[in-house]
Amino acid sequence: MGLGPYPEVSLAEARDKARELRKQIRNGINPLQEKHEQKARQEILARKKKTFAECCEEVLEVKDSEMKNKKHLAQWRSTLETYAYPFIGKKAVSEITKVDLLAILEPIWLTKNETASRLRGRIETVIDYAKAK
């Protein structure tokens, strides 16, 4: 395990870090495993902070390779950009609530029921994707 490059980490700092690492080992903690777990936790937090629009783009990239007809991908993008982005596009996926979803769907549910139903499914797909990541 490296402690850092010489000019950036002085000999005294390296000794202090080594002392801390030995202390962790004595306490039954594997410093390398701890470092990897910390990095994984940070990645999970970063993913949770992704906005709905960012997750949509990731889902659309996946869908692009799955869909045979590019028109369907354009329809996915259009409904999400038209109806969902104004309400939750800049919102972190982890902060989206049922109230947000109702605010998106209620205005179009009676007049454009098929669009609302498809939009609900598409939003659900994006949120499920974000949770899985």
From TrEMBL:
Signal peptide: none annotated. Pfam families: Arm-DNA-bind_3, Phage_int_M. GO terms for biological process: DNA integration. Gene3D superfamilies: 1.10.150.130, Integrase, DNA-binding domain. The keyword DNA-binding applies. GO terms for molecular function: DNA binding. Keywords: DNA integration, DNA-binding. Residues 50-131 form the Core-binding (CB) domain. Belongs to the 'phage' integrase family. PANTHER family: PROPHAGE INTEGRASE, PROPHAGE INTEGRASE INTS-RELATED. This is Integrase arm-type DNA-binding domain-containing protein.
